[in-house]
Design brief:
The protein is of the alpha/beta class. It is built from 14 helices and nine strands. Helix 1 links the parallel strand 1 (21-25) and strand 2.
Length: 366
C-alpha cells in the first residue's frame, strides 16, 4: 500500500483559481433551524462542491456547541459518502486526544471501505471544546497529558492503519478492521488505499511535526490568521521527504462568504461574528439570524473584537472574494484553500459556494 499513500493529497486547480479549492463544513445550526436541516444543508453543499469541482470536503469535530452539529465527523462523512461519488471526504479534523487510536483507525477504515480512494484523515491535538467537556470526553482531567502525548498517539494510530506493529509489541496481534489484515488473511482481498493522514494546527507544534514526518499540513487561518505565515514557514523549513510526500503540501482554512452585493455579504458574516462573541464570553448558542445580529448592541470591547474578526473573513461580491482569495494564496503560498462559510442559513452558504465557483469559472455551472 506504500505507493498509494499520497493519492488524493495534491489537487488540481480548476478554472482560473490559483490553487485547488475545497470546503470545510462546521454543520452550523442557525436560530430557528434544526440539526436535521443543518445536515441536509451539508449534503446539498457536498453535492454542489462535487458538481463544481472543489477538491475535497472536510467536516470539523466540535463538542458542546449548540450552533455546531459536527460532533461526530465519521458519522457525517458516512452520510455524505452516500450522496457523492468523486469528491474527497475527510475530517478537518478528528481531535486525536479525545479518542483511542484504534477506534479512529476502525472508523476511517470503515469510511475507506465505503468510499475507496477518497477519504482523508485530518488530525488535531486540541480538544475542539472547553476543558470541562474535554474531560468528559476523555474520562480524565489530565488534559495536558493528551496533548503532550500526541506524537505517540499519532504513531500508534499509524501502526493500526498500516497493521505493522513489530513482533513482541503488546498490540501486534490486534488489527483495525476494515484494514490491511484482511488482505493477509486466507482468501483475503483488500483495497489498495488507506486514508492519508494530515496534521492540523493553529500554531507551530503540528506544523513542525508534520514537516518532520513528511505529512501534509492544514492550518486554521480562519481563526488564527496572525500565525499562518510563521506556521507555514516552519512547516516548509522542517519538511523531510517521506513515503507520503516528496515535497511540502499545505492547505489553509479560510473564512469566506460571497453574496450578490457587498451589503448582503456583510449582513451574513455578522451572524458568525456575533456567534464568536458569545462563544468567547462563555455564552455559546445557535447562530443568530441576520436580523438579530444587525439589532445587537455591541459593547465597545465586543465591537473591537468583531472589527478584528471581520478583517480576517474574505467577504463581499464574487469579484471581491475572488480578489481576496487570490491575494491570500499569493501572500501565504498555500497549496490549497479550504473555504468555510460563516452564515446563519443554508441558503446563504450554498449561494456563496456557487458564486465563488462562478467567479473562478469552475465547471458544472447550473
Amino acid at each position: 500500500m506504500e505507493e498509494n499513500r499520497g493519492d488524493g493529497i495534491r489537487g488540481t486547480a480548476g478554472g482560473t483559481a490559483p490553487v485547488p479549492l475545497s470546503v470545510l463544513d462546521l454543520v452550523s445550526v442557525g436560530a430557528g433551524r434544526t440539526a436535521s436541516q443543518a445536515l441536509r444543508t451539508s449534503v446539498d453543499i457536498a453535492k454542489l462542491a462535487e458538481r463544481r469541482g472543489f477538491h475535497r470536503y472536510w467536516v470539523a469535530e466540535h463538542h458542546s456547541m449548540p450552533g455546531v452539529a459536527s460532533s461526530s465527523p465519521a458519522v457525517i462523512l458516512a452520510h455524505l459518502a452516500a450522496y457523492t461519488e468523486r469528491i474527497r471526504l475527510g475530517s478537518g479534523g478528528v481531535m486525536l486526544p479525545n479518542h483511542a487510536p484504534l477506534v479512529i483507525a476502525e472508523q476511517f477504515g470503515t469510511l475507506e471501505a465505503m468510499a475507496p480512494g477518497r477519504v482523508d484523515l485530518g488530525l488535531g491535538r486540541a480538544p475542539g471544546t472547553d476543558g470541562a467537556t474535554a474531560a468528559a470526553l476523555r474520562r480524565t482531567d489530565r488534559l495536558n497529558e493528551g496533548a503532550d502525548d500526541f506524537p505517540e498517539q499519532l504513531a500508534e494510530l499509524t501502526r493500526f492503519l498500516d497493521d505493522d506493529f513489530p513482533d513482541g509489541h503488546p498490540y501486534a496481534r490486534i488489527h483495525a478492521v476494515p484494514g490491511p489484515v484482511q488482505a493477509t488473511s486466507p482468501g483475503g482481498v483488500q483495497s489498495a488505499f488507506r486514508p492519508p493522514v494530515w496534521l492540523l494546527g493553529s500554531s507551530g507544534f503540528s506544523a513542525r511535526l508534520a514537516g518532520i514526518l513528511g505529512l501534509p499540513f492544514a492550518f486554521a487561518h480562519h481563526f488564527s490568521a496572525r500565525n499562518t505565515v510563521p506556521a507555514l514557514d516552519l512547516y516548509r523549513e522542517s519538511f523531510r521527504p517521506s513515503a507520503v510526500l516528496d515535497a511540502p503540501y499545505a492547505l489553509i482554512g479560510v473564512a469566506a462568504l460571497a453574496a450578490d452585493d457587498e451589503r448582503e455579504a456583510r449582513r451574513q458574516v455578522l451572524t458568525g461574528a456575533l456567534s464568536m462573541v458569545r462563544l468567547r464570553t462563555g455564552r455559546p448558542g445557535l447562530v443568530p439570524s441576520p436580523e438579530e445580529a444587525a439589532a445587537y448592541d455591541f459593547s465597545p470591547m465586543e465591537r473591537e473584537f468583531v472589527d478584528g474578526w471581520l478583517k480576517d473573513i474574505v467577504h463581499g461580491t464574487p469579484d471581491e472574494v475572488r480578489s481576496g482569495l487570490d491575494d491570500l494564496a499569493k501572500r501565504t503560498g498555500a497549496d490549497e484553500l479550504m473555504i468555510t462559510a460563516n452564515a446563519h442559513g443554508g441558503e446563504a452558504r450554498l449561494r456563496s459556494y456557487e458564486l465563488i465557483a462562478d467567479a473562478y469559472g469552475l465547471p458544472g455551472a447550473a
